[in-house]
Amino acid sequence: MDRKLKVATTSLAGCFGCHMSFLDIDERLLDLIQLIEFDRSPLTDIKHCGPCDLGIIEGGVCNAENVHVLREFRRNCKILIALGACAINGGLPAQRNQLDLRDILEEVYQTEPGLTHGGIPNDPELPLPLNKVHPIHEVVKIDYFLPGCPPPADAIWKFLTDLLAGRTPHLGHGLLHYD
Amino acid sequence: MSFKLETAVYPEKLKRVAIEPVSRVEGHGKVTILLDENDQVHQVRLHIVEFRGFEKFIQGRPYWEVPVMVQRLCGICPVSHHLAASKALDMIIGAKLTPTAEKLRRLMHAGQMLQSHALHFFHLSSPDLMFGFGSDAAQRNVVGIISAFPEVAKKGVLLRKYGQEVIRHTAGKRVHGTGSVPGGVNKSLTVDERDQLLKDIYQMVAWSREAVQIIRGLFEKNLEEYNAFGRFPANSMSLVRADGAMDLYHGGLRARDAAGKVIFDHHNYEHYWEVISEDVKPWSYMKFPFMKAFGPDDGWYRVGPLARVSNCDFIPTPLADKAREEFLAFDAGRAAGATLGYHWARMIEMLHAAETIKDLLHDEDILGTDLMAKGERVQRGVGVIEAPRGTLIHHYRVNEDDQVIRANLIVSTTHNNQPMNEAIRQVAKQYLNGKKLTEGLLNHIEVAIRCFDPCLSCATHALGQMPLEVSLIDAKGGCLDRMVKNQQAASLTD
């Protein structure tokens, strides 16, 4: 391949476990970087996504900033994938969807015993939380979904190597699971 | 109440610079800096910008789900939450663990300490340390390290891999496993698994020793800068064993003041609230814990590797203990008070974790099959553990129907909230005052944050996230100057 595939990754309302699973390809990472180049990612100091071949999104959307970042990725990435349970359906953070956001904020920051000066953080520097946590496909078009909490490293590897070889990615038995 | 450089008197008259998101850390955060017309710094804040609400939405869930739910706070240190929750629930079901169960949990925890410390040092922070704080941003990442120092990078990748394999063999999965349950563990270690791990452990101990030498060498080479960088005096807190040894799985709380004098010792963590309280500030979703005896202004403290290594009386494995003595004696003790000393202390702990794994694999109890215990059920449980990033507190109440009715989590990075803010204010004074901002200068702020290995996902269990962009806004709201970590992308921003 003449040109390295340009890849951007980000974690929205996730736990970085999917990124950890990505790194769980272990020493294959040393080979992979011969074939790909990282753009914006928690692993680099590139703060905004430039034009990329592939964007990998971990986590759902829980605040206004997540929405901006997700749209930035969609604008710049030819292929966008939802990596893991939270990106696909909101995951565990979406457990808060059955509750009222204000109630949660009040309980955590105001009425919780043991607090000295209570008060819900409200500085303009803090992005507004959304009332619900959303899967990312509700906000932008997603090209591929890799399930799992997190998806196994071998599934991420299979997906990337298929894509790099010009094949339609296919996970198959053993790599496609939801736990 | 306010700290120096925390809140400017007339913020509306100052220009604002933001670093957004903070990168090469786990989670989401940003830094804002307010400067006057002479570029003197008046305000610096690390904001944690996400809220998630874990403490609230686990209410109503059956207690046995908790260890697998709360570990989803963090994919880098899920084992810490998995174990802290399990310890709290051991208390609730009145279980005293069998020797095999406790040792398997300790093994899992040591695996986690090894992989997390390796990840932080090699994958995230080594680019700053090995290329320089203000070096070319395009190279300043793990890919740059793989290209420039392939042997070092490979050892880092394999150290992390080994820790992850220890976790897989004890928890069932590398990330978000299920091995620990209230009352014990649900999986024994087979002879095959033990032998697989034994095969490589001596290599891991050797490479961990090399890692300690790498950071020592960096201190020797950059002595003045490393000692002074973001330095500030602070209290510290960690768990210690009854005999004063470092113990990352269990112990009593010990705190020292900046001079090393003991503030409290062997405090029973089941009553942590007697000594710790939390403050809330409107500009961050992360709370600000402090020791009650001194109040919010003076009672804040550091946790994590630097606090633990200097707080304990000794490390109960020989190589790490020797490394600790050398660290504490280095340059008349100054490295042990330096913010960058966190990296050195972290590598000493990685060595300790490798030695602990070696000892546990040789312990005959580790292959045992008596895994579960139970006892008399109570309603309240507290579990505290030393996670890779510091003291982690889980506290639950469970009703007669086995539902969680209350939860309080004080995670490691939260304890370090004020220290991180203090460190970046020092760095802003040392490096940014009166200067025209460059990407390299701004990275110094992030270097200070990375010393603490913050886990901002954990810290946002009630909310969110960390990015880096700096804009200078003049008094009329016009944009004077703007620095984005990658120039190419700057034009693509909204």
Q: If you had to describe this structure to a student in words, what would you say it looks like?
A:
The complex is a heterodimer of chains A (179) and B (494). In chain A, 50% of the residues are buried. Chain A starts with a strand and ends in a 15-residue tail after the last helix. Chain A has 179 residues and is α/β, with parallel strands linked by helices. In chain A, strands 2-1-3-5-7 form a 5-stranded parallel beta sheet, with helices on both faces. The mean pLDDT of chain A is 93. Chain A is elongated and about 60 Å long. Chain A has a domain at 5-96 and 132-164: Rossmann fold, CATH 3.40.50.700. Chain A is 31% helix and 20% strand. In chain B, strand 7 and strand 8 (262-267) form a beta hairpin. Chain B has 2 domains: 3-49 and 421-453, no CATH class; 54-419, Cytochrome-c3 Hydrogenase, chain B. In chain B, the strands form 6 sheets. A 4-stranded mixed beta sheet of chain B has the order 8-7-6-11, with helices on one face. A 3-stranded antiparallel beta sheet of chain B has the order 1-2-3, with helices on one face. Chain B contains 17 helices and 16 strands. Chains A and B meet through helix 1, helix 2, helix 3 and helix 5 of A and helix 1, helix 4, helix 5, helix 6 and strand 9 of B.
